[in-house]
Amino acid sequence: MLFRATLLPLYEHFTAEGVTTWEWVPSLLTGFFAGRMHPDDVFALWDYYLADKSEHQAMGLHPYACLATLSAMTELLIEAEKTELLYCLEHLPRIDTAAIMRKAVLIRESVYSKELLA
Question: Mind telling me which InterPro entries this protein's record contains (predicted)?
């Protein structure tokens, strides 16, 4: 639901290409980017997660970091077909972790202000 609500054009592209959320969301959410992203980027993101005092659980920002990462990759992903989409989601590029986390916080604030989780 958050994917559709926050990144509708990308969600629609995934749907048009036949990419279901079951093909990529569970492993992305449970793996915390390990094995998908450069180790330095993974560790930097984990540092942000663990330092976030506004959450009751240590990794509470992770779903929003996933959305922020997808948002940063929209241009690449919107041009890809199903096989390439799934490959890109398994082999994420190097990222600007500070920018991703700023975007993640903005997405989280937007989700809460729009009461999308209610």
Answer: Rab-GAP_TBC_sf (IPR035969)
CA distance 104 to 110: 10
Averages of pLDDT over runs of 10 residues in the chain (118 residues) are: 94 98 91 93 91 67 95 97 97 96 94 86
State how far the alpha carbon of 111 is from the alpha carbons of 6, 18, 29, 49, 104, in Å.
8, 26, 17, 18, 10
Q: Tell me how many degrees the CA angle 16-22-23 measures, rounded to the nearest 5.
A: 70
Q: Could you say which architecture CATH assigns to the domain 2-113?
A: Orthogonal Bundle (1.10)
Cβ contact 108:64 at 8 Å: yes
Q: What is the pTM of this model?
A: 0.90
| Residue pair 28/90 in contact by the 8 Å Cβ criterion | no
